[in-house]
Amino acid sequence: MYKLLSHNDLDGVSCGILAKLAFGNNVRVRYNSIGSLNKEVEWFLENEKDVFLFITDLSVNEKNENRLEEYYKQGGKLQLIDHHQTALSFNKYEWGHVTVEDEEGRLTSATALFYEYLLKHKFLESSEAVNEFVELVRQYDTWEWEKNNNEKAQRLNSLFFLVSIEEFEEVMLERLQSNEHFFFDEFEEKILDMEEDKIERYIRRKRRELVQRKVGELYAGVVYAESYHSELGNQLGKEYPHLDYIAILNIGGRRMGFRTIHDHIDVSEVAARFDGGGHAKAAGCTMNDLAFRLFVEETFELDPLHEDAKRNRFNLKESSFGTLYKTKSDDILFIIQVEENWVIEKDNVRLEQQFSNFRQAEMYIKRNFQAWVAKDEVFVQYLMNEVKKRKREE
Ligand SMILES: [Mn+2]
């Protein structure tokens, strides 16, 4: 008999699907949130006998780590398979297998590692349909799909959230067993199209609710959202690249997620500050008192960030005429190139900071003044006033 305890996201549930492909009725599978795994492990250790335990896509707390090692030493069968940076220390155990990057330097997923394990131990034979499925899950989980423009991976995750876990398992098992290739059927394609439109509208709305706050040394964008965390974090991150990361709050669930699009930021370190964990690009934690104070209480009064004007023809970024920004307190900021450098004028007074490129100058004013690219009308008015002023001076 086998038992699998796995995460309740696409990567974790896909481990369950593979386990059922391999062991059929001889495996019992339980999906867990990061928080509930430890109770399951305790229950297992106290109640189950002669069962081979797999733990995938999650890792246990220190107490259970020690208990599992004890269990293993006394002959218990056990294998933990994970790909999270924060779990790397489990490699010191014979029953731990944690790989973040494979030999070719590609980010791994729990499903890919577990598939490899099942093939190696001949619990499962490789098939084209399963290969394709496992790769889609990996690309989604590692966010590699975006670089590769692999929409199918994102759609697989959308489908996962559209149906119950049981239904997803059942449909995928059947599809992987009886087809040469992995595909979505016509009905799924249709609802996935509708879902895509819905996500787009949701993100557009959330974009108007994002507030900015400096937490420690880093600039965070803070937003409340219960769903589509990854899509939201990614889109908002791109929209506001001056922010180091996006913090997504789920008050009802007392959870928060962290996402970043920047290579120099590791949000698992941010999450660790609040006793959470995860990946460099995506992490999360339970909302403790400190997180609540910093991200909820102290941001409640803040106004959302204003979006840059999008339909301008004249007031454009990196323009040789300069780029005009406005702030909530009606200050005018102007970024202009002077010889080799980019400088900022605030209400016509030049700031002493100089920047080697436009992007850095913009980051400075977005971080310090939360300014946005003004509309063309404001820009034209500003230039006209400048001309008048100069004429008067002459
Ligand atoms: Mn995973």
UniProtKB/TrEMBL annotation:
Signal peptide: none
InterPro entries (UniProt xref): DHH_sf (IPR038763), NrnB_C (IPR058608), Nucleotide_metab_enz (IPR052968)
Gene3D superfamilies attached to this UniProt entry: 3.10.310.30
Residue stretches making up the Oligoribonuclease NrnB C-terminal domain: 322-392
Pfam families listed in its UniProt record: NrnB_C
Superkingdom, taxonomy of origin: Bacteria
Coiled coil: none
Name recorded for this polypeptide: Oligoribonuclease
Lineage: Bacteria, Bacillati, Bacillota, Bacilli, Bacillales
